[in-house]
């Protein structure tokens, strides 16, 4: 079935590029950034950063004058001398941002996550959004999406709404009409919603599917249980976003959807940061500079070594996201990838530093231990550690009650990992979600403290 709308959808990208020089510039930036050799690539990024820091400095938005340092010969390494912007630092900067852009119609106000109850606020200029949009299309092409390909998404917003705010202006409304994206899910979808989603997907062979990892996983479990999997090759592509993707989840989702599942890594502050190509490399968008630093010493790490990830956004000229600490762990290295693209890739993405919590003894444990435990108990569908006291934990899980001896095994194993804490295995119908609808591996429900996931968890 092909009507005027379908034709326009296919033509949307060429039309946008032809009508909007900023959008076209974003696409050119992507092509250039993914084709250059490392040295030229670094020069390209640093020349833009140099201009950006100069402009931020003139507006008094940088705590330390750094632009002159960036003028040196070895400029990419000069970036390591610049201060790190933490979430706390961004909160301190916010009043200055609000003074500058609060009444500026060309700037959009954004709030990140809020899963901690302490969201960060920042601004983005609309002009740069269009530039970023052109570059993001390149990133979608890495994921296997092509203009005109329908997208069906399962994620934690209201069903039917693909953006938080309604589109504004003729360009915005037109873009929204042509978007060809259908949103399903909501924060805690009921089974019917998954079947509605699948019916829509089945009606569009060759479409793309995307969603929160935990929602795709639940959908995959339903499909496998009811023998309603999609034939291999039915989908053009599928990708998981917003939550970490673990091996057991990837296998389940691929089995049910009949397609290689890619990763889309990003955040509210920095949209599409890195995506998987067909060759399995997690390509970093040339819009960003990503570095890994040592968590303790804060020193930059050599290529391939895992540390806390810092991101520098070259397409946000309103908020200085320069060496902004995301709260995630990973390693960065240069790759001339088998897919034909060149650039920096995330050689590793190991999860959120945010998932760390502290035991009575002072030992820090990553919330990802829950995933390790899951690997031992295939009967469990999804699992969450809930701390109900200083040394008391519940391992809540879905997938039906475990046999008593298996439940005891789960309790003993978890207790050993948590230095002898008292652990109870509790079967539940639904696990608690973060305020933004994500399944988080660890949360606290201690008397006297509000429900709170670990710090910085998005
Ligand atoms: Zn690649």
Strand order of the largest sheet: 4-3-5-6-7-8-9
Class from secondary-structure proportions: alpha/beta
Mean pLDDT: 84
Which class of the largest domain in CATH terms? Alpha Beta
How many helices does DSSP assign?
Answer: 13
Name given to the CATH architecture of the largest domain: 3-Layer(aba) Sandwich
Number of domains: 2
Biggest sheet details: 7 strands, mixed
Bound molecules: zinc ion
| Radius of gyration, whole Å | 23 Å
Remind me, CATH topology of the largest domain? Answer: Rossmann fold
Distance between the termini: 40 Å
Mass-distribution shape: globular
The CATH superfamily of the largest domain bears the name ANL, N-terminal domain
Parts with pLDDT < 50 across at least 5 consecutive residues:
450-458
The proportion of residues in beta strands is 15-25%
**Count of individual beta strands:** 19
What's a concise summary of this model?
With 458 residues, this protein is of the alpha/beta class. It contains 13 helices and 19 strands. It has two domains: 4-353, ANL, N-terminal domain (Rossmann fold, 3-Layer(aba) Sandwich), CATH 3.40.50.12780; 359-444, GMP Synthetase, Chain A, domain 3 (2-Layer Sandwich), CATH 3.30.300.30.
């Amino acid at each position: 079935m092909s009507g005027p709308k379908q034709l326009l959808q296919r033509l949307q990208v060429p039309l946008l590029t032809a009508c909007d020089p900023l959008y076209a510039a974003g696409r050119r930036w992507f092509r250039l950034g993914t084709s250059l050799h490392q040295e030229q690539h670094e020069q390209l990024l640093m020349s833009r950063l140099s201009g950006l820091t100069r402009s931020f400095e003139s507006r008094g938005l940088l705590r330390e004058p750094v632009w002159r340092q960036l003028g040196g010969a070895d400029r990419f390494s000069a970036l390591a001398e610049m201060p790190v912007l933490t979430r706390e630092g961004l909160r301190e900067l916010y009043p200055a941002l609000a003074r500058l852009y609060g009444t500026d119609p060309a700037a959009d106000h954004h709030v990140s996550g809020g899963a901690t109850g302490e969201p960060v606020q920042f601004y983005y200029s609309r002009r740069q959004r269009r530039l970023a949009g052109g570059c993001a299309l390149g990133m979608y092409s890495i994921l296997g999406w092509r203009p005109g390909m329908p997208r069906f998404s399962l994620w934690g917003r209201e069903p039917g709404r693909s953006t938080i705010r309604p589109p504004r202006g003729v360009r915005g409304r037109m873009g929204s009409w042509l978007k060809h994206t259908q949103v399903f899910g909501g924060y805690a979808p009921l089974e019917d919603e998954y079947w509605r989603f699948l019916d829509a997907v089945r009606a569009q062979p060759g479409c793309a599917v995307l969603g929160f990892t935990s929602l795709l996983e639940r959908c995959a479990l339903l499909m496998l249980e009811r023998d309603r999997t999609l034939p291999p090759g039915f989908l053009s592509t599928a990708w998981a976003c917003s939550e970490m993707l673990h091996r057991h989840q990837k296998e389940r989702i691929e089995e049910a959807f009949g397609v290689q599942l890619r990763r889309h890594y990003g955040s509210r502050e920095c949209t599409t940061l890195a995506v998987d190509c067909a060759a399995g490399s997690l390509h970093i968008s040339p819009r960003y500079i990503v570095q890994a630093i040592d968590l303790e010493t804060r020193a930059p790490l050599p290529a391939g070594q895992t540390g806390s990830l810092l991101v520098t956004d070259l397409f946000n000229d309103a908020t200085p996201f320069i060496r902004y600490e995301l709260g995630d762990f990973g390693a960065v290295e240069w790759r001339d990838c088998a897919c034909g693209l060149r650039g920096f890739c995330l050689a590793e993405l190991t999860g959120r530093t945010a998932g760390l919590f502290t035991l009575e003894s002072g030992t820090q444990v990553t919330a990802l231990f829950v995933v390790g435990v899951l690997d031992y108990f295939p009967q469990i569908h999804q699992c969450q550690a809930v701390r109900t006291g200083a040394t008391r934990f519940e391992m809540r899980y879905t997938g039906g009650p475990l046999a008593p001896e298996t439940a005891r095994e789960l309790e003993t194993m978890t207790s050993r990992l948590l230095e002898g804490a008292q652990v109870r295995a509790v079967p539940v119908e639904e696990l608690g979600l973060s305020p933004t609808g994500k399944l988080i591996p660890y949360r606290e429900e201690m008397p006297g403290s509000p429900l709170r996931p670990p710090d910085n968890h998005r």
